[in-house]
Write a structure and sequence with these properties.
301 residues; alpha/beta
Length: 301
C-alpha cells in the first residue's frame, strides 16, 4: 500500500507503460509529429463543421464554468492543428500562441486565422518537445496552457514542462482507455482467435501524480462516440495500421483475410466505422487554488 503513495514508483511506472499512444503510433510506423499530415484537410473539415464546433464549445464552456476567462488572456495552444481551439480562443478575445509542427495543418491554420488582427494568433512551427521553455521566455508566461489530445505528454517530466509555461491554468486531455473501434472488434478475433479488449491508458498516471504532488485540479472523464464512412480500401489501410500498433505483423495472409472479410461484410464498398472511447480532461489551477475564488483569468492591462 505504501507504493500507492510513492511518487517515484508512479513516475517510473508511467515511463515503462507499454501501451502509450506514442508507442502505438511508432509500432504502426507513424511519426507522431506527422500523424495527421495525410488527413489534415479532412481533420480540418471535421473540426469546423457543425458537430465539430459543438464539441469545441462544450470544452470551452466547461473551462469557463471553472473560472477560465478568455478575453485579453494569453493562451498557449500546444498541438494547435488547424486551429480547432486556437480560432475560438481568439474569437473570445484571447491572444493565442499556437504550437504546431505538421506543415499541412500549419497551412490550414494560416487560412483559418486570416480574419484576426495581425499577431493575435502567433504560429510557432515547431515540436513542443524541441522547445527550450526558458530560452523562449515561456516560463509562467501564459494565463492558460491548453493541450488537447496531443502526443506530447509521455511521462511526468513532459507534464512538468507543460505546467512550467502556465501562470493561471493548465488544461490537458488524454485518452482514459484504448479506443474501441467497431471494425477492430470484427477483425481482431479473425486474426487472434481472441476478443478485442480495451485497456486503461496513461490518464490514470497523470491524475494520480497530480494528486501526489499536491496540485489543485478539476477532472472529467467522458465516453465519446463518432461514426465515419470510408471506402473498403481506406478501411483496409486503417486496419493494417491498427494491427501494427497492436504488435501484429500485417503480412500478406492477414491482408487477404481482411480483404475477403470486407468484401463479404460490406459488399457496397462502403464501411461504417464506429469509434468510441473514454477521454479524460483535467484543469490544473496554478494560482487561485480554491474552487470559490471565481476569479478566472486576469485581463492583461
Amino acid at each position: 500500500m505504501n507504493d500507492f503513495f510513492n511518487e517515484a514508483i508512479w513516475e517510473q511506472a508511467w515511463k515503462e507503460h507499454g501501451d502509450s499512444v506514442i508507442n502505438k503510433m511508432k509500432k504502426a510506423g507513424i511519426e507522431p509529429a506527422r500523424a495527421f499530415d495525410h488527413k489534415a484537410r479532412t481533420f480540418n473539415e471535421q473540426s469546423f463543421n457543425e458537430e465539430g464546433r459543438k464539441r469545441t464549445s462544450r470544452i470551452m464552456n466547461w473551462l469557463e464554468g471553472q473560472g477560465v476567462r478568455f478575453d485579453n488572456a494569453s493562451v498557449l495552444d500546444i498541438g494547435a492543428a488547424s486551429g480547432v481551439f486556437s480560432v475560438p480562443f481568439a474569437e473570445r478575445g484571447a491572444d493565442v500562441t499556437a504550437v504546431e509542427s505538421s506543415l499541412p495543418l500549419i497551412d490550414l491554420l494560416k487560412e483559418n486565422i486570416t480574419n484576426f488582427p495581425q499577431d493575435q494568433v502567433k504560429i510557432v512551427p515547431e515540436r513542443f518537445e524541441d522547445i527550450d521553455v526558458q530560452a523562449k521566455g515561456w516560463s509562467q508566461a501564459f494565463d492558460l496552457v491548453f493541450l488537447s489530445m496531443c502526443p506530447v505528454i509521455v511521462d511526468w517530466q513532459s507534464v512538468e514542462k507543460v505546467l512550467q509555461c502556465a501562470r493561471e491554468f493548465c488544461y490537458i486531455s488524454m485518452p482514459a482507455g484504448s479506443t474501441e473501434i467497431s471494425l477492430m472488434n470484427e477483425i481482431w478475433p479473425l486474426i487472434t482467435d481472441q476478443p478485442y479488449r480495451s485497456k486503461h491508458m496513461e490518464f490514470g498516471y497523470l491524475l494520480h501524480l497530480l494528486y501526489l504532488k499536491g496540485y489543485s485540479y478539476e477532472s472529467l472523464v467522458t465516453r465519446e462516440t463518432k461514426t465515419t464512412e470510408v471506402s473498403s480500401e481506406a478501411a483496409l489501410q486503417d486496419i493494417m495500421n491498427w494491427l501494427r500498433g497492436h504488435g501484429q505483423v500485417p503480412d500478406d495472409q492477414k491482408r487477404k483475410l481482411i480483404t475477403d472479410y470486407l468484401e463479404k461484410a460490406y459488399p457496397s464498398g462502403k464501411v461504417a466505422i464506429r469509434q468510441s472511447g473514454r477521454y479524460g480532461k483535467v484543469l490544473v489551477r496554478l494560482h487561485d487554488e480554491s474552487m470559490y475564488s471565481g476569479n478566472g483569468l486576469k485581463a492583461l492591462s
